[in-house]
Design brief:
By secondary structure, the chain is of the alpha/beta class. It is 36% helix and 18% strand. It has ten helices and 14 strands.
Length: 341
């Protein structure tokens, strides 16, 4: 695909990205792969994680000759910013959100204020187009930085890969699933008490924390450890569950929820941050206040076979309509073309 400018410019997309083992890495890899599948040139230059906080000790990546646009996230250090190309910058979350403050250590708070904040401000100033992954994230960024022009493109999920398995009803015991790390931000302190309240008619399958923090929490006997999951094992875990349980205190846009809904799982989550943008209360799941009793009651409600079947269909339909990866990719391609026109 060629774009006319001063002469001819090939629309190739280059992703200089710090590899940090998070959902941001998955976003970059999926988008790059999807662009290639559409016949576009796209490549990632991975920067080691230390480049985030000591970028002067990391070689600055150089763009390929064929690249016409660079796509970064706003945590890319200023020293590694690709000055040679027009830039699209995606904001995956806003760590300057006051709602996040209670869950930060003092060291994290200082790091975010003294290093990440000025770095993001510089990246936002230099980028030609800014994109946030949810309306909530865009609002928090506008409040923190005073930036007005932010587009919103929801993260997408591959609806071919993440798809429901044939089912006619929920399991007995009813199977809840928690997927994620075990930081206090994720609301994991509710998992054990909720499962104790629900008793033997319910079970919770959970993934391990990458740093082993799951071992700090006392869980009752109706909880089982799935280990660390990825690839087809993660898809199978969604398909074998009945409902995703996410008591998180804050989310930029949770890919876990999108994957679960694509697999036909109703979602029980807290009514905070971007979650109401994803979960339609009473249609694709239930949104609760942070209360053991409210979460437990929501689990009992969704376990009703007729409610479960209705929400299962609603969850899949909502993802197909609003969060399909194909739609996300097409919207980013439109931005790239806008920059190169």
């Amino acid at each position: 695909m060629d774009v006319k400018g001063q002469g001819e410019m090939r629309l190739g997309i280059w992703f200089p990205a710090v590899r940090c083992g998070s959902g941001t890495d998955q976003f970059t890899m999926r988008l790059c792969t999807a662009l290639r599948e559409r016949g576009m040139r796209a490549a990632i230059s991975w920067i080691p994680h230390r480049g985030e906080y000591i970028p002067w000790l990391v070689a600055r990546p150089r763009p390929p000759e064929w690249a016409g646009v660079a796509h970064v996230n706003t945590w890319l250090p200023r020293l590694l910013f690709p000055e040679e190309l027009p830039v699209v910058a995606t904001i995956h979350s806003c760590v300057h959100d006051p709602a996040l403050s209670p869950y930060k250590t003092r060291a994290q708070a200082l790091y975010h204020r003294l290093w990440i904040l000025p770095n993001e401000a510089a990246v936002m100033k230099r980028a030609r187009i800014l994109v946030a992954v949810s309306r909530y994230t865009a609002e928090r960024v506008r409040a923190a930085f005073g930036v007005a022009d932010i587009r919103v493109i929801y993260n997408g999920v591959d609806c071919r890969r993440f798809a429901p398995a044939p089912r006619t009803g929920p399991h007995r015991p009813f199977r809840l699933l928690y997927v994620g790390n075990w930081s206090p931000l994720k609301g994991v302190e509710f998992l054990g008490p909720v499962m104790e309240r629900l008793g033997g008619a319910f079970e919770l399958a959970y993934t391990r924390d990458r740093c082993g923090r799951h071992a700090r929490y006392r869980l009752p006997g109706n909880c089982r450890d799935l280990g660390r999951l990825g690839g087809d094992d993660l898809v199978r875990a969604y398909q074998e569950a009945d409902t995703l349980f996410l008591p998180s205190h804050l989310e930029g846009l949770p890919l876990t929820v999108l994957e679960a809904m694509a697999c036909g799982l109703p979602v029980i989550a807290a009514q905070v941050a971007s979650l109401p943008e994803v979960v339609e209360h009473g249609v694709t799941g239930l949104l609760c206040r942070h209360s053991v009793e409210e979460f437990a009651e929501a689990c009992r409600d969704v376990a009703d076979p007729s409610v479960w079947r209705s929400m299962r269909e609603g969850a899949r339909e909502r993802v197909e309509q609003l969060f399909a990866e194909s739609d996300m990719v097409e919207r980013y391609i439109s931005l790239y073309e806008e920059l190169c026109s």
